[in-house]
Design brief:
The complex is a heterodimer of chains A (86) and B (397). Chain A is of the alpha+beta class. Chain A contains three helices and four strands. Chain A has a single domain, classed as Glutaredoxin, CATH 3.40.30.10. Chain A has a four-stranded mixed sheet with strand order 2-1-3-4, covered by helices on one side. In chain A, a hairpin with a 2-residue loop joins strand 3 and strand 4. With 397 residues, chain B is an alpha+beta fold. Chain B has two domains: 232 residues, PPM-type phosphatase domain (Phosphatase 2c, domain 1), CATH 3.60.40.10; 159 residues, Rossmann fold. Chain B has a six-stranded antiparallel sheet with strand order 1-2-12-11-7-8. The longest helix of chain B has 20 residues. Classes of the chains: A alpha+beta (86), B alpha+beta (397).
Amino acid sequence: MEKKLVVKICTGTLCYVMGGAELQVIDEYLPEELLDKLDIKGAPCLDHCNNCDGPKAPFVEVGDKVISEATVTKVVEAIKEALKEE
Amino acid sequence: MSSTDGFFVEVDCTQLRESGQSVSGDVWLHHKTDNRIITVLCDGAGSGVKANVVASVIASMVVNYARLDKDVVKAAQTAINTFACSGGSSDNLRKATFTIINITPYDRQVRIAEFDNPRVIIMRGTEILEPERKRHVITATCGASIDMYETVFTAEVEDRIVLFSDGVAQSGVNTRRMPDGWGVEGVRHLVLQSVENDSFISAQRLSRSVVSHAEMNDLFVVKNDMSCLVTYFRRPRKVLVVTGPPFDGDKDKLLAQEVASFDGKIIVSGGTTAQILSRELGRELSVVMKRDPSGLPPASEMEGCDLITEGVLTLGRVKALLETMKNSRVDIKGLDARYVRLLLEGDEIYFIVGTRVNTVHHDPNLPVEIELRRSVVKDIARELETKFMKRVVIKYI
């Protein structure tokens, strides 16, 4: 089976109040053909908030890449880029 | 409510007021200390504000007498002298009827004093128990005499005392189905049946079922104030709430052990806390990616835990919900409601609060204020103790 690109969305407190609530439903913004190649997961807390200077939440991991101040547009872009590289 | 050596007394009362009235003439007063439970149901004559005022005064008089260890007969006598004889006419004799249940959990002694309310139903498991009932004749200063009955027995686990006002017993009067009303026998039948169907039925559910049935008998237009008070002696139901990572990382193992060995329902509040438990217990943790009706961050799942939520935001909503609740019924949907339901199902609630603080939560530039975990838990505990009469233990780690 083809290996899927893992997208991890942080649902921790800080990410959630900084706009992460919208990211939970990111699958609604993605076309079918992209969805098949993705494994979208939630994470209780990715702990990136404690490892950077100042609040840059919400965080999303697309493959190995960490996206800070994530928005739906930013994440969709990152997904497309990551899939292109593969 | 109280618990002594695995013996727990659950008390709950469901009330409905007469249609069109703004207050109930039935008053339930409950007083609990570590070694004493006094619960009184007082039914003021008539309905509305007047009945409520008389019933409230008599109920608090009786509770205060009982608190001071005064004889219950003496308390009844004073109440009757004060109210029954004031007008001098025999119509005034029964300003209120009341029943007092006095329980000392350490020796399991139960003393019930009944003054003209429908006779209480005492159950041992699924059987009706009929302990000796002593009659006292009370003579008021105006010469009128009234009977009072006293029952003393030693309670066992799975005993129940069901007490109801005459609004329940008389429900359905003058309807085609039951022209003479439901009657004490009718109530007894329903109680027996409910306990047979579910031998662990809670006091809350049993009292609610009796009152709903009475409401139905009255064809949903309640003709007289209805109350049903159930006292249930049982093994305590325990709930554990784990929230926040331990202050010292070395304690993670200890926290996991507490969770693994807990006998009861388990709630985990906090992403990091859930991850610590997942790591220490070697159990897989997965987030349920579904938008919740409450608007709160999504729940997670892990073997052995009944509910896993985000931390402080969820706790804040749980606190707000508990504060606004007028009874123990939760009608809304969502994670906060599920959380509260789980808490209220327990008799003893244990909180293990990790005190490590995530400093980024306290950045003043955040769009919402994130409260301090410790203070939210304290507020929740206070609500559970004072409003819902739970036994709460908080431990910091």
